[in-house]
Task: structure prediction
Amino acid sequence: MRELVRRIDAATPPGRDRAADALRGFAILGVVIGHWLVTALVADSGTLRVTSPLRQMPALAPLSWVLQTMAVFFLVGGWMAAGGLARARARGMGYRRWLGVRMARLFRPVAALVAVWGAAAVVMLASGVSPDTVIILVRLVLSPLWFLLVFAGLTALTPLVVRLHPLWPLAVVALTDLLRFGLSGPSWPGWINVAAGWLVPYCLGAAWSRGALSGRATGWALLLGGAAATAALVLWAGYPASMVGVPGARVSNQAPPTLAAVCFGLAQSGAALLLLDPLRRVLRRPAAWAVVASVNLSAMTIFLWHQTAMIAVTATGLLTGELLPGLHTVPENPGWVLARLAWLPVFTAALLVCRTAFRTHERGRPGEVGNRPAPSASTGQGPAG
Result:
């Protein structure tokens, strides 16, 4: 283990910002743990249905404030894309080739997921599994892919984003919400916020890559200003307190993103910027960096297969013939939460199996250019691409 840690540390280019990789790893793990905690597959009369403990216990809404980390992912994504494009151009690489490499690395792991679940759906239907259950499971696995489509679109727009001030997409979100909620307009314009809402932290990331967000004052302004705006919108403008979707709720902060969700993302972005220097100090330690690098090397695999891991454990539990607390039961009391926490290590073990089986789909061919460091003679590829 010590030798592996040493090799990972030696393979990392001196100029790599390890703190940015730590933020991305935190964002991915926040999404994974968040889904595992707020998604419940309830066994009912031979079928499975999806519900959420946030529906039964709204007092748990603060949990979503910690685990809704997509804004941090888009912040780091904007930073990496803008910086990667600048470096590619400096080496004489054209935009089309750079984008092609980025898209291949983004969607190559998706092909394996779609192929496996396509075959699984056919097998389940042929085995007599209820079509409703099959649809629920496939939807649960594929629904997080919306983020890849949005991220791919923003990546393609990176040459324009680097010139865009974050206030412009923020203004679009505010006007859209004013039309929907303040003026009782139609709901469909809200879907503009799927792009505009996530464009805000992505633009911040591009500005960070240009050095425009240097200084702790900027981080504090984003953190305090975003938090104050979010609190005001929740307390006095009627926005939901939960920063994730709740089944059956009249308004969701995520489908599509609302002004409250975007302001919350500003606060998260500010907190992320304030954590950069402390993280850099911690990640000088080879052991700490090895953990972050390992997560980042399989970040997309972890994201794509975490719902599969939860479903696999849930399905295996049904073989006992009993409804296991925290796994198949309705999330209606704190006891369910404690039981679900006890299942998290089992979900993690199943996810590690998926990671071992499918991580090769995430790694590109030698010589691919993007944000990944040049391949290392000691490891075969740079960490945390």
